[in-house]
Design goal:
Layout (H helix, E strand, L loop, with lengths): L4 H7 L6 H9 L4 H5 L3 H8 L12 H12 L12 H9 L2 H22 L20 H45 L11
Helix pairs in contact: 1-5, 6-8, 7-8
Length: about 190
């Protein structure tokens, strides 16, 4: 429904701004904050509400004026986390970061060790050392580093999947709660 000039004029007749209303609700019931507006009765008067009878007058016009001044009366859903953001959060875990760093360092050392020439290669025409034939220790380091990275990927994905599942369940529960929630309002003395 479009806001007319009459609705705009009505919305300008409220004695409180949105910021002042927010300040009243943010003060955790600070009596000094409410007293500066004349107490509960003063705040009700500024909002054009009767303490006992609620909003009086033409219901539709009053509601439109309030929507024009203060906006819709609802709490928006919080932004939902994506699977990727949950995965990144899981990877930010201190243990995961330490394991990832250790695996990367092991891989870097493994590749640097095999890419660099032997310091004695000029003196040995066959380029063989007694330990050159035994690469089992070196390949074990490579396999361990890869295994650590795979474990980090699996654990972080399992964590992200569990968190995503919980997020979806919470969304369903929140929606069910909102769907069954009944709010009572007073209009012209009627509930």
């Amino acid at each position: 429904m479009a806001t007319t000039n009459k609705d705009k004029d009505l919305s300008d007749s409220f004695g409180l701004t949105i910021e002042e209303c927010v300040a009243l609700s943010d003060e955790q019931g600070d009596p000094l904050n409410i007293k500066r507006f004349g107490g509960v009765e003063g705040v009700a008067r500024l909002l054009r509400v009767d303490v006992k009878n609620g909003i009086c007058g033409n219901k539709e016009i009053e509601i439109q004026a309030r929507k024009a001044k203060f906006g819709e009366n609802f709490i928006p859903d919080p932004p939902h986390k994506t699977y990727l953001s949950l995965l990144i959060d899981a990877l930010k875990d201190t243990t995961m970061m330490i394991l990832t760093a250790a695996a990367i360092v092991s891989l870097v050392l493994y590749f640097v060790q095999f890419d660099s020439p032997s310091p004695c290669s000029d003196f040995n025409p066959d380029n063989k050392f007694p330990n050159d034939t035994d690469n089992s220790h070196d390949s074990a380091e490579f396999i361990e580093a890869i295994a650590i990275l795979i474990a980090v990927i699996v654990v972080s994905n399992v964590t992200a999947t569990n968190d995503y599942s919980k997020e979806k369940q919470f969304q369903k529960l929140s929606q069910a709660t909102r769907d069954t929630e009944v709010l009572q309002v007073t209009r012209n003395g009627q509930r």
